[in-house]
Amino acid sequence: MFLVELVMQGIRGFRELARLRFQSGFNLVVAGNEAGKTTAVDSMRRLLFPGNQAELLEALVSRHSPEASRAALVLCADDGAYYRIIQDFSKRAVNLSAYNTASKEFSLLHKDWDNAAPFMAGLTTGISEEDYMRIFFYQRERHAARPGVAAPSGAAPRAALSKPAPSSGGKAEADRTRLAELRETLRKAEDAADAEYRCQSAKLALEELGRKLDSFDELEQKKAGIESTLDSLKGCDGMPENLSELIDDQERRQGKQLAEADECNGRIEGLKTQLAEMPARNLVTDKLFILGAAVGALSILAGVFVLTAELAYVFPIGLLLSLVLMAGAWYSNSRKNLQRKNVLKEVGDLEKELAELEKQFQREGATITDCMRSAGVSSPGELKEKADNYRYSLSLRDDIEEQRQRIFGDLTLEIIQQQYQCRQLEVMELEKAAQAVARHNVDTYSIRQDIERIDSEATGVSAELSWDFSAEAQEPPADFADSVAGGGRSGFRAELGIASRVGGIELETLVPAVEAAAQRNLAAVTGGKYVRIEAGQEGDPVVHAQDDSVVNYAELSHGTKSLIYFCLRTGLAEALAGKRRLPFILDDPLADFDPMRQKAACQVLRALGTKTQVILFTSNPALKAEGDAVAELK
Predict the structure, then answer these.
(1) C-alpha 499: how far from its chain's center?
(2) What is the CA 274 to chain-centroid distance, rounded?
């Protein structure tokens, strides 16, 4: 069975019509504080378990419009039929309808409490309201004292005992025969249900092992990919730890060297331009020198062949002028050649300085150059990126190893495969056993009703006494204390006892299944801080830390205790999902958790939603995730 829609109007603080639609899996209902989460949960409780008692209905009547307080719930039964129950809490009226697929409308079935209540009891497989609240409803105020001793309920008035009149001998014999047949049928049905439950539990364990194998394969594939990446980055394995700092220093030095080299190159270019404007001077080709030589030659020729005695003084003057011109030419050429030589020397010094800068840069960057050569890269930037990729891949590999160790411990792939094969064989055997008794797997609710009816009509000393609530107070039957002892048992065993009874599962089978599911949930929510949990025979549960040491439950914080109880309750709901697929309704139980654990706990509920319907009322909108069925209560 799963819930489809809840409609409320005039319930407690609600004035306008409020509508919530649900899906069969995980449902998230977001509402702020004082927005009506608990009102919605209490309304669902009253609609699932209708009753005409004034104290039950008056608690939901609106304080704003007490004359009009009503709610409706649409649900889908296990056979696929849809039903709608409407209750008017102020007028104490009920209306139960069934959906007609032909007319596409709801047709009235019952409009009185006497027929509506038993019909709804059949849909909830005959579980009492109190048992349902203890197992399938999860409200913080109800588990505030758990897993400690449960608070005693209020004293109820004693009911009178009345003994029915004895039946005739023939009818008694027929009743005994019929009772024996019914009990035998009930025993076979319970055996068939147990066989089916064991088969379903084995299948769940097989699925868990399958998920482990998938996780193992996924981790191995990730590890293989990372190993391949590390092989491609193998040249980075011997690099210094402070490589990034060395590269940064190298880049700073390179920038400085480039600036100095640019300055030197600029000066060299300027000097070369200056040299181009200062060609090398040759004395022989100098015009002034040629003029002086010509004057000297003409003076000599004139003195020998032309000049007379009277003009002899011209000869020494010509020679002197020739010498002056040639000396001037020599001085000018010498000065300009000296300037050119000085420029050439400055160019040479700058080129030596540039070469020295290059050598110094190579000496200082020898470590980076060696790393670049070993890594097969051509620039420090590529080297830094490759080294970062190498270290990141190393961290991923370490994370995978840590995750693998946390999840699988010393288990190897071969061991898990062997466990999977053994579990497969076990599932096959259990499927055969379940199929062999499948014909006896019938609804036990009607059989139990028939047995109770015949028992109530039975006569003789062995006949059980029935309660007469209209009679005066009398002493309760002798076994009354045993029948209610479960209500005050300490620890989580009370819930286990109820679940064992309503699910028809022996505790020896139920407890390991609950502990296995709770252990998985606890490890997931706490990130592996706590790895194992035991329900405990009496009192507090037993919690084991990551190193398998037992944690003192009394020393745990209130939030951690709530977390442990959450894991036990979700484990119990998961263990019962194969026998009692009923809605698991939670009224903001994650409020005591920190944000990370809230999200992890929500993931646990999503996984549980694949097995049964889960409806989580919460005030934290951050718990929404893609794919969730989300409703908002305003």
Answers:
(1) 29
(2) 74
Q: What is the DSSP string of 576-612?
A: HTTT----EEEESTTTTS-HHHHHHHHHHHHHHTTTS
| pLDDT tens profile 602-629 | 999 999 999 999 999 998 888 998 888 8
Amino acid at 10: G
C-alpha span between 458 and 174 (Å, rounded): 11
Residue 459 has pLDDT above 50, yes or no: no
Q: Is 50 exceeded by the pLDDT of residue 469?
A: no
3-class DSSP state for residue 6?
strand
Name the 3-class secondary structure at 409.
coil
Quote the pTM value: 0.50
Nearest to 82 by CA among 98, 69, 103, 104: 98
CA distance 205 to 419: 10
Instruction: Specify the DSSP element, H or E, that contains 94.
Output: strand 93-100
Cβ neighbours around 65 below 10 Å, total: 14
505-526: per-residue pLDDT in tens?
888 888 888 888 888 888 888 8
Exposed/middle/buried for 437, CB within 10 Å: 0-12, 13-18, 19+? middle
Q: How far apart are CA 176 and CA 161, in angstroms?
A: 23
58: which 2 tokens?
């008056």
The rounded radius of gyration (Å) of the Cα atoms in the chain is 49
Widest distance between CA atoms in the chain: 195
Exposure pattern of 234-258 as b/e (b: 16+ CB <10 Å)? ebbeebeeebeebbeebbeeeeebe
Distance CA 84, CA 68 (A): 19
Read off the pLDDT of each residue in 301-316 and give the average, rounded to a whole number: 77
Looking at residue 627, the DSSP 8-state letter turns out to be T
Q: How would residue 277 be classed by pLDDT, with cut points 50, 70 and 90? A: confident
Residue (of 201, 187, 185, 341) closest to 271 by Cα position: 341
Rounded to the nearest 5 degrees, what angle is found at the Cα of 526, between the Cα atoms of 543 and 404?
100
Taking CA atoms, 329 is separated from 289, 294, 572, in Å, by: 5, 13, 117
Cα(589)–Cα(564) distance, integer angstroms: 12
Q: Are 25 and 610 in contact (CB under 8 A)?
A: yes
Following DSSP, what letter does each residue of 197-257 receive, concatenated? HHHHHHHHHHHHHHHHHHHHHHHHHHHHHHHHHHHHTGGGTT--TTHHHHHHHHHHHHHHH
What backbone torsions phi and psi does residue 445 show, to the nearest 5 degrees?
-65, -50
The percentage of the chain sitting over the pLDDT mark of 70, rounded to a whole number, equals: 86
Q: Which of 11-15, 54-58, 306-310 is least confident? A: 306-310
Output phi, psi for 155, to 5 deg: -70, 135
Run of H or E residues at 615:
strand 614-618
The secondary structure of 144-176, three-state, reads CCCCCECCCCCCCCCCEEECCCCCCHHHHHHHH
The tens digit of pLDDT for each residue in 415-431 reads 888 888 998 898 898 88
CA dist 422 and 209 (Å) reads 11
